[in-house]
């Protein structure tokens, strides 16, 4: 039986999970593949991190460079995270002719346009299933299973922390800060939650998915990003009254020669299957012109689910090595020569429906003035909800609009602000009507 | 650019859809793969069937044998269906060293134990993604993405016709016969619906999934099968009162050295994501020890969704051919030497919860007698619903039991029948409590 030697960089959560699968599932994997996928080295600055793993002597090391330079190792698995050391080690490993597996969405969305061509030139595979959607095989599905489809759109719940927070806010009526603090205490959110709750993590993932779905260069800078900090239980309740659920969605759509790419709190109909995805789970719907829509659903993060995706990449590459077929599938789904720069539609040109919540002064004519300002910018109101609640001199005034252009909405909101009849900035949540038939 | 020549057998719904993708997406596919996947021939006894396709002269033929024997064709796509001619042509194509793509679940579940080893001996790939779940990449996901997981269970809505009928019965309160007739009139059900509504089609699919999930020989004969003909709107309504939805589920679970494998109407909690899968859509949840659960959801049948899966298989094999890597992934997910015969748990040894509806005579003591008979066979009742409805001298009496053994249930029901206090056979529906956390 052929043996493929693996070196893992980083023995944190996902690194130790990956090592555990390779060690404990060696027979299962060889029964399935006929390959002895062998963990030769695992490097971490803190060598005690491997102490719970049944490692043979010499497998754990603090010398990541030696792992990357080891001529017996064919596949380097980068699970350090971050964009500096990880990039350095991956680049060095590629130079050494090693194949790469990584879960590092931040790195790939920032430097993928350098790293993927580098790997292609050197003739090595660079696999990253675990970087998006944890154990859900979203990369493989788009790249291989939908190969005969022109992809139309992607709609995903791609950040477990946000979904966990919004689910609890919905179920319990708690405020964002309260749920975040509790999530941090329970390990469901990072001490610095910015990357998650401000939408950047989902944007990293969406930038990667867009590249493989549409055959475009990775374009993180132009993804519109808005987090969930301003969402309140009141908005969630109003949304429910209208039949909607609030989710942080990552959305991209192929339009005329451009791609919409945006991450923001979104109201979706209760009937949309994504509305049923709760807690830290992830789900993503991909539309293709042959399949209509396919949805994947599962754990988008966590030790073993993510490690499972890493191992699927390791095995894919090991099979390529044994069959002499590295490069069998272009890393970014398209041949490098076929990848184009496709513009991202500026958010100002988005047409969508909106939920607006104003904190209106309790004086006559406010509704008419707001409606007038919206109307003068071509924004039609579909429904209004003014619950009989008062906060001092103010009352929440909620409107759901028909489709409108974002630039018009901005102008209308500026006009409304200038009228001095509302306190605070309004809460603006985009509504996604298309549920893809699922 | 390398060219791979394709021959399609059968220009029916899926065959013409596959041809259409190959013809219309040639550039997209070559942009993605660097391969010219070329439709060389398509055979059908009725050559007029290709008339809507933009076929070059000589591509359409009535001579399937000539396609299978054509030395320039590397991949044969069998979309004839049935188990006689299809088997003959596939066998001949394998003998000729050609790689095979098929969507024929009936053939594979009946003769896979012969055909797969034949292909392996001849060193050709035999791919069948489209045979289960239409466009959902369930075969690829189990075989490749979950390669590091011991699979625990599969729960799926795998027959679109049954799901369509049950969804409409649920939404509209119509009777089975009425919805079936309407479905037949609208092309959602076959003229002879037996294969679908009696559960056999789902059983074919489950037998294939079990093989790749558990590394077992294909064992269709031992899959327990029960269709949806006896389900009434009344049962669906009672189920809803208890918080359940009725679905035809295909269920398999790895137990101690055996595998549960069964297809039958099943009550699942409204909270279970599978309960939200309506119409002709399919969905399947797979549990693995690393991922917990992954769900795929999409069109399980239909022209273009199924053709999309066929094309993904064609491209997979084309990539293998260009890279000299046929056999890269064992067709049945395990190396032939590692495939074992795993017994299927006899249905009598199943332990599950039950819904029972008796048509009870309106006389005193009936409930107590029925409860007594159940109790004497170790079956405990969790709840009872006796709506105040009367049908002549009878009234429906519904019970939900705690977990019980199927053999005990049969004995208890025989005892109850012997008491002559119920009319007709009771309606018995198994309840699936585990939603896999999804």
Tell me the CATH superfamily of the largest domain in chain A: NAD(P)-binding Rossmann-like Domain
CATH class division of the largest domain in chain A? Alpha Beta
Number of domains of chain A: 3
The chain pair with the largest interface is:
A-B, 62 and 63 residues
Give the class of chain A from helix and strand content and strand pairing.
alpha/beta
CATH architecture label name of the largest domain in chain A: 3-Layer(aba) Sandwich
Number of DSSP strands of chain A? 17
Largest sheet of chain A: 11 strands, mixed
Tell me roughly what share of residues is in helical segments of chain A.
Answer: 25-40%
Mean pLDDT of chain A: 95
Percent of residues in β-strands of chain A: 25-35%
Stretches of chain A where pLDDT is under 50 for at least 5 consecutive residues are: none
- Taken from the alpha-carbon principal axes, the silhouette of chain A is elongated
Using the coordinates shown, work out and report the CATH topology of the largest domain in chain A: Rossmann fold
Oligomer classification? homodimer
Q: What is the count of DSSP helices of chain A, taking H or I runs of 4+ residues? A: 14
Written account of the structure:
Two copies of one chain form a homodimer. With 438 residues, chain A is an alpha/beta fold. The first copy, chain A, folds into three domains: 2-134 and 303-338, NAD(P)-binding Rossmann-like Domain (Rossmann fold); 138-299, Dihydrodipicolinate Reductase, domain 2 (2-Layer Sandwich); 347-432, ACT domain (Alpha-Beta Plaits, 2-Layer Sandwich). The first copy, chain A, has 14 helices and 17 strands. Chain A has helices at residues 13-24, 26-33, 64-69, 85-95, 105-122, 138-145, 160-172, 176-185, 194-197, 200-214, 233-241, 303-322, 366-376, 406-418; strands at residues 2-9, 35-43, 60-61, 75-78, 99-102, 126-127, 151-157, 224-225, 244-254, 259-269, 281-288, 292-299, 351-361, 381-385, 394-401, 404-405, 422-432. In chain A, the strands form two sheets. In chain A, strands 7, 8, 9, 10, 11, 12, 13, 14, 15, 16 and 17 form an eleven-stranded mixed beta sheet that branches. A six-stranded parallel beta sheet of chain A has the order 3-2-1-4-5-6, sandwiched between helices. At the A-B interface, helix 1, helix 2, helix 6, strand 12 and helix 12 of A face helix 1, helix 2, helix 6, strand 12 and helix 12 of B. Chains A, B: NADPH binds at residue 105.
